[in-house]
Amino acid sequence: MIKGVIFDLDGVIVTTDDCHYLAWKHMADEEGIDFNRQINERLRGVSRMDSLAIILERSTKPYSLAEKEAMAARKNNDYITLIHKLTPADILPGTLETLRILREKGIKIAIGSSSRNTPVILKQIGLADAFDAVADGNQITRSKPDPEVFLLAASLLALDPADCLVVEDADAGVEAACAGGMVALGVGAAAANPLAMHHAHTLAEVDWEAILC
Ligand code: B16
Ligand code: MG
Fold it and tell me: Is 109 helix (H, G, I), strand (E, B) or coil?
């Protein structure tokens, strides 16, 4: 029986795809590295340094760890400028109604995000106090597809992972949920993921009665 729902943030609650894309693109252009929206899709749910490693697949130049950290920091500075423009209008369709339904049913709700910018994003969209627990990239050492962030969210909710459902837009996140012994609802880019037990294009389409029964 589902007692808790753990939401991924980027791509599920709010769309930050463009902010990530523009910030990585700026950094890649400065370094003369080929980067496009197709490669950006591979960064979904992946940590900042793992994202940089994917981008550097197109570079022949050897970068030291210090240089890589500086590149990631440059990207993040641009990204922070962009996410400070987010407002509650950027909350994805069906999100607020979903949170209301789950609260009404007594289901606990949490965030399980790879993003170290989770606190800023939640503040910008006015949902800083909307969840019973927040697990994010600041509290974990292993990024999705490792289940660490979702296991942390379940433990913060004081729930058994088997009693939690994870909502994810990334294949790496669906994999992480399954590896943690949770069922997944794939949305957006993960709407057709075969590992997810439930599927929907957006939260607005989800039949919670059917999922929670
Ligand atoms: P940051 P999620 C993920 O968030 C994004 O999908 C991914 O593209 C990003 O690289 C990662 O957060 C790290 O983000 O640089 O802000 O720490 O989908 O797990 O909510
Ligand atoms: Mg995501």
Answer: strand
pTM: 0.95
- pLDDT of residue 213 exceeding 90: no
Nearest residue (CA) to ligand 1, atom 5: 45
Domains present along the chain, CATH in parentheses: 4-14+88-212 (3.40.50.1000), 17-83 (1.10.150.240)
Atom of ligand 1 nearest to the CA of 72: 15
Q: Is the pLDDT of residue 110 over 90?
A: yes
Q: What residues sit around ligand 2, an ion, with C-beta below 5 angstroms?
A: 8, 10-11, 45, 169-170
> Ligand 1, atom 13: nearest CA belongs to which residue?
115
DSSP letters for 6-35: EE-SBTTTB--HHHHHHHHHHHHHHHT---
